Amino acid sequence: MDFSDKRYRFFEGTHEGKNVIWIQFEKNAEMIACLRSHTKARWSATNKKWYVTDNRYHRQLFNMPLQITGKAVLTQIHLLNLPEYKRFQEHLLLKGYSPNTARTYSTAFAQLLYVLKSHPVKDLTPERLRAYFLYCHGKLKLSESEIHTRINAVKFYFEQVLHRERMFIDIPRPKKKQALPKMLTKTEVRKIIEVTENPKHRLMLQVCYGIGLRVSEVVALKLRDIDSSQKLVRIEQGKGKKDRLTLLPESLLTDMRNYYLVYQPKVYLFEGQAGAAYAARSVQAVFKKALEKAGIKKKIGIHGLRHSFATHLLETGTDIRFIQDLLGHSSLKTTQIYTHVTDLSKAQIKSPLDSL
Q1: How far apart are CA 354 and CA 138, in angstroms?
Q2: Is residue 126 in some structural domain?
Q3: Burial degree of 176 (CB within 10 A; 0-12, 13-18, 19+)
Q4: Is 15 in the active site?
Q5: Is 306 among the catalytic positions?
Q6: Is residue 179 part of a domain?
Q7: Which residues of the chain fall below pLDDT 50?
């Protein structure tokens, strides 16, 4: 039994001043046992219903739509601007933006509304907006990427929601820092995998590096996406909401089969509690622990495994357009950044000093 059973009914509510998810069903010992085995649900004698805390985990477990932003955000927005904020979020949903982008844009737009207080956001002039972004620069000391995000969110509201053109023609954007991707050597990658003793955790890192996946794609992998006979992996709705096919390394097949026999996943390759997808934060924590255990001092996140995958392919002579397809990059320019960090290519270049 699981929570797709139509006898369960879930709906939002509040209980003792907290946001909760109410769970209703006819009294049934098996259904109560299922609920208790997967959650810390409590019974409300007053409301005659079960309830759990309203959070991301429970919403995923019950197949409820995820909130774009938390309810706490709404309490800080003036009532006068609240309808515009809700309209902004509805437009993001209608445009089909990914949950991560919708959440990022909503948070950035909310920051503007906090500053405005009771001033109507739709009445802002280009001059007032310019003053706001100067405030972000000078007072808040935001980074270039944070200011870009705020500009994009506000631009989306005025140009997409209100259909006003050319609102930002006089507002210059800060130049983004051109940072090279952080990567690991093959020796370092091997060491990180070797020190990870838990089979599930080790396979996560192998998949991340061996297939060149983003951590969000690793946790979203389903058993049906893996074609071991063709040695292909289907990445469903990756960044930019695009599907793509990538290669399944021969060296991963045995480890995957052994892992499956031990853990018996049902839907996702890597499952957490109650069969839900493993949390991306947990995979990041696995990588951080492995990095420390391997004695590697580099300040690098799990995305560095994907960077290393691309760089190592380039070093072995793989065509850059093929790497672009494997990584799921829309533009070749995005992939070309790896040409700046290939040590092997740099080592083949001789300084004019050597020929004097």
Answers
A1: 48
A2: yes
A3: exposed
A4: no
A5: yes
A6: no
A7: 344, 353, 356
